[in-house]
From TrEMBL:
Domain of life from the UniProt record: Bacteria
Organism from which the protein derives: Desulfoferula mesophila
InterPro entries assigned to the protein according to its UniProt record, in alphabetical order: CheY-like_superfamily, Sig_transdc_resp-reg_receiver
Biological process annotations from GO: phosphorelay signal transduction system
Annotated protein name in UniProt: Response regulatory domain-containing protein
Amino acid sequence: MLQIMVVESDPSLARLYREELEEAGFRVVVRSDLRRAMHSLKGAPAHVLVTNLDLVGGRLESWMEHLRQVHDGGVVLLGRPRMSPCIEGLSVLDKSSDLSDLVCRLRDMANNAWWQHAGGNC
């Protein structure tokens, strides 16, 4: 089962993400800020980190370099970037109350990870 860490400062949105993603079959951990998320990832890795583009702030490339020190899984940013970043392992989706695109993307990431893992065992 894919372990998802959601970073969301708004408690009602955090609850929505948890409920919808758990209903879709994912294990979900929610953190209210990126500092707590980074600390948690050191001790309890997640397969995918989902956060709001606004929480990242600053330069996306430098934030990803910092994140990669504690997280080697996928990253999904929710929001509208000015430019579409081309960073390996990073997906950007529009932030919406309809989580169907997010659920589809997470399922795709889970399938890809499973096939990569299975490919090494054939």
